[in-house]
Amino acid sequence: VYVWIYDPVHFKTFAMGLVLVIAVIAATLFPLWPAEMRVGVYYLSVGAGCFVASILLLAVARCILFLIIWLITGGRHHFWFLPNLTADVGFIDSFRPLYTHEYKGPKADLKKEEKAESKKQQKYDSEEKSDSEKKEEEDGKTEGTRNSGTDGSGGERHSDTDSDRREDDRSQHSSGNGNDFEMITKEELEQQTDEGDCEEEEEEDTESGPSHGKS
């Protein structure tokens, strides 16, 4: 099995590398540059150095300004000039916003407490609502079980009455038809045979009685 991995160098990276090599070679050949170009590069380097120094001085100055305002107001006012100057953001975002101001006094503490109390009340209300909803759901479930229980008892009663009616109908049909058979125990058979013998003896006695009278 052969696998070809093709990872070409992008044209942008190639161009940037070429420009970097040319810049390094040009910097090493700085003494051979024309006088006008050397003067221009000198002014550009001085301007870049001044810009970096001004940013550093501005960072120190904003800290000093914050400290002065904080000491004068007793730690109540927090004023930052260019708060994102030393933050890990882009070059343009470092100068946005221009300033920020925060008041951390007793009123701010009261506002925070009020906000916390309002949040607690909201949570308490939501918990009460949830508890009431749960109670309503439980009541609905109990009512549903009761209704189902009554329906089930009614259904059982109907089923019992229907089964009784069917048994009565079957007994009537069995009594009406002579061909149907009935289950009889031994004791019942013996009682029936004894009754039959008694009836035969009575018949014989009745027959013998009038014959003797005639004679």
From TrEMBL:
<keyword id="KW-0653">Protein transport</keyword>
<keyword id="KW-0813">Transport</keyword>
<keyword id="KW-0472">Membrane</keyword>
<keyword id="KW-0256">Endoplasmic reticulum</keyword>
<keyword id="KW-1133">Transmembrane helix</keyword>
<feature type="compositionally biased region" description="Basic and acidic residues">
    <location>
        <begin position="107"/>
        <end position="144"/>
    </location>
</feature>
<dbReference type="Pfam" id="PF03839">
    <property type="entry name" value="Sec62"/>
</dbReference>
<feature type="transmembrane region" description="Helical">
    <location>
        <begin position="14"/>
        <end position="35"/>
    </location>
</feature>
<dbReference type="GO" id="GO:0005789">
    <property type="term" value="C:endoplasmic reticulum membrane"/>
</dbReference>
<feature type="transmembrane region" description="Helical">
    <location>
        <begin position="41"/>
        <end position="72"/>
    </location>
</feature>
<feature type="compositionally biased region" description="Acidic residues">
    <location>
        <begin position="190"/>
        <end position="207"/>
    </location>
</feature>
<keyword id="KW-0811">Translocation</keyword>
<protein>
    <recommendedName>
        <fullName>Translocation protein SEC62</fullName>
    </recommendedName>
</protein>
<keyword id="KW-0812">Transmembrane</keyword>
<dbReference type="InterPro" id="IPR004728">
    <property type="entry name" value="Sec62"/>
</dbReference>
<feature type="compositionally biased region" description="Basic and acidic residues">
    <location>
        <begin position="154"/>
        <end position="172"/>
    </location>
</feature>
<dbReference type="GO" id="GO:0031204">
    <property type="term" value="P:post-translational protein targeting to membrane, translocation"/>
</dbReference>
<feature type="region of interest" description="Disordered">
    <location>
        <begin position="107"/>
        <end position="215"/>
    </location>
</feature>
<comment type="similarity">
    <text>Belongs to the SEC62 family.</text>
</comment>
